[in-house]
Amino acid sequence: MRHPAGTSGSRGAVRSGHRPFLLLSIRGEDEAADDEYRSMRRFAGLDATGMRRIRLTHEPLGRIDLDDWSGIVLGGGPFNVSDPPEVKSAIQCRAESELLALLQRIVEQDHPFLGCCYGVGTLGTVIGATIDRTYAEPVGGVTVSVTDEGRDDPLFAPLPATFEAFGGHREAATTLPPGAVRLAASAGCPVQAFRVGRNVYATQFHPELDLDGMLTRIDVYKGHGYFAPESAEALKSEVRRWDVRHAPTVLQQFVRRYAR
């Protein structure tokens, strides 16, 4: 069993009460990674014992026994599965290889999984979706519409028919293979969320991201090519106009449904 560290410094899976959830992080920058971890736990209603973390930019994934975890969550970051191999760093290549192998097992076992943003690219790759830059969206707010299939899904059914969320991505799913269920869409990106089997999910938008988190990420990633660095302050003003209160429902429902 893999024994990841939480911010409390304790190691090992919880043996009493609910089995913990596992957050897999691909954010190399401490400020963004730590904010993501805090936000995931806060919206999920979990402490560092209830949600452990492995930072794949800092350590190998190691062996994961899926039975030790109530569910696995993958956060977003600057990696893109569809980037040419020659532009990927050694860290990205290693992390991506580990994640794709894990996701293959997750899909085969239909183990609870929620991939946020980068989850679309990784899970989509495993199931044979077309992942490319056709439907990239700029950093900022996005209006998400729940599909008819999403209305019948336990994670998406509690959401309004349309809701606002934060996003920003260079790659997305252009097509899904038969069997994958499209749960949400936006005007600029036809696949904002999908499900595989009964328990494996990916969202293009960020269900863990509130205004404070978005402002942090604008500061951290203003030199990463998502937007012109000189436009950072204007972008901060623009994102303050969005009401993203409903987006965390997906994360909350995931934890409520799969805590065991």
TrEMBL record:
<dbReference type="GO" id="GO:0005829">
    <property type="term" value="C:cytosol"/>
</dbReference>
<protein>
    <submittedName>
        <fullName>Peptidase C26 family protein</fullName>
    </submittedName>
</protein>
<dbReference type="InterPro" id="IPR017926">
    <property type="entry name" value="GATASE"/>
</dbReference>
<dbReference type="InterPro" id="IPR029062">
    <property type="entry name" value="Class_I_gatase-like"/>
</dbReference>
<dbReference type="Pfam" id="PF00117">
    <property type="entry name" value="GATase"/>
</dbReference>
<dbReference type="InterPro" id="IPR044992">
    <property type="entry name" value="ChyE-like"/>
</dbReference>
